[in-house]
Amino acid sequence: MVSDVPRLPALWDPAQRAFMDRHAATIHELASGFDAPLHLLFPERFARNVAAFQRTLAERRVTGRIYYAKKANKARCFARAAAETGIGIDVASAGEFGEALMAGVRGADIGVSGPEKASDLLRLAVHHDALVAVDSVDELDRLVAVGRQCGRVARVLLRMEPAAQRSSRFGLNPASFDSALALCASNRSTLSLEGLSFHLSGYGAQARCDQAGVAVRACMSARALDLAPGTIDIGGGFAMSYAAACDWAAFQTNHRPDDYHANKTFDGFYPYHSACTGAQMLDAILTGIPDGDSKPLADSLREHGLQLMLEPGRALLDQAGFTVFTVQGVKDRGDYGIATVNGTSFSVSEQWFASEFLPDPELLTAPNEPSEPPRMRAPYRACVGGASCLDSDMVTWRKVAFAQRPEAGDLLLYPNTAGYQMDSNESPFHELPLPPKLVVTLDGARPRWRVDRLSTLSGA
Ligand SMILES: *Cc1c(COP(=O)(O)O)cnc(C)c1O
């Protein structure tokens, strides 16, 4: 029954693959010691992802600043890695702002985005010299008031409504943009216009290149008003691959509703493979020619003395973490089973976008006691249910093809979950503990782990 079922083998970081092969006993010990699902984090990998983006900027001779979009993961270790690698952080709340400062990021390296930001957050930003991406004329008015109260100059980016995504609720439309420029021009003692920003949905390089072209031209109009914007912020949305091209293509052609528990269907999935990801996608944006221009974006930026700012979230977390659930038991349902784990689908956020996190989880079987009979190794399909009383709480609706039947005490390792999957929707529903985050270092003679922050444990 398992031979031609759709699979989506995950890409694993080789060092993490070796860690789970050689140190399965340690992972089992941690899972039972914490008695909860676990998120294992690898900040060294984050630093390597940062370096790849920086190399691209250097190769294309573009002055650039990377701001890690903090909402993609709440862990402290990544904010600290951002501070250590000297990049900035993009935040959207006072809580995230505080976390960034605590991690050692200077206020001047913090970018603040989000719509109609609370005045408290604006005040925090102005006091700490952070860069505020302003989303509306009303907000800009409030920022002028805050700047006056604080007796300080507010550093401003104007966020543009994407020319090709007019239904977005973010950004200033062309008319509001002109009013905002006029406000900047008439409030020079409280507002310093440092540049223009945008953040697009989707993962297209050319769309970002085109919008950057629009932003470069808008900078020129601002300069005509004797303002001095020097930055184009192209936001985030750098694609990431979770699976190989051929596997993702095969999966999409093969899977059918009856490959999912309850014949569940989904409107769409994250593109689990993209031909152009991360730093490579940045390169495509820089070497692309914006619509209506005649030269690559990188050339225009250099010519006009503009620096590029980018806000990757997910792409900096590529291969920077995975999630461990413990199987509590398995129910046979005829031609497949339901494995129930010790957590909920609130910890695999894709479910909350009415979608599913598709890369195959890895089964790490419990160590076999010498007194026990060896386990049968026959292929077995199972979906994965959460430990709650909700029918809809499925960690994986798909009937995953395992090499053998999972059993109580086995572990399911969900790959590459650091970007958005871990905590954006986590909930202590049913008083179940929130998964602790453990930072794992693999650069020494043996792996070492430490707790990222204890406050995520329920009741702590
Ligand atoms: C969420 C967000 C990002 C990060 O997006 P990714 O897809 O994780 O790269 C960057 N900028 C803004 C304004 C955002 O809202």
UniProtKB/TrEMBL annotation:
Needed co-factor(s): pyridoxal 5'-phosphate
Location of N6-(pyridoxal phosphate)lysine modifications: K71
UniProt xrefs under Pfam families: Orn_Arg_deC_N
SUPFAM superfamilies cross-referenced by the UniProt entry: Alanine racemase C-terminal domain-like (SSF50621), PLP-binding barrel (SSF51419)
Active site: C389
Matching InterPro entries: Ala_racemase/Decarboxylase_C, De-COase2_N, De-COase2_pyr-phos_BS, Orn/DAP/Arg_de-COase, PLP-binding_barrel
GO BP term (any one): lysine biosynthetic process via diaminopimelate
Keyword hit for Kinase: no
Domain Orn/DAP/Arg decarboxylase 2 N-terminal: 48-245
Domain of life: Bacteria
Cited PROSITE patterns: ODR_DC_2_1 (PS00878)
Gene Ontology molecular function, alphabetical: diaminopimelate decarboxylase activity
Keywords: Pyridoxal phosphate
Name of this protein: Y4yA family PLP-dependent enzyme
Native organism: Trinickia dinghuensis
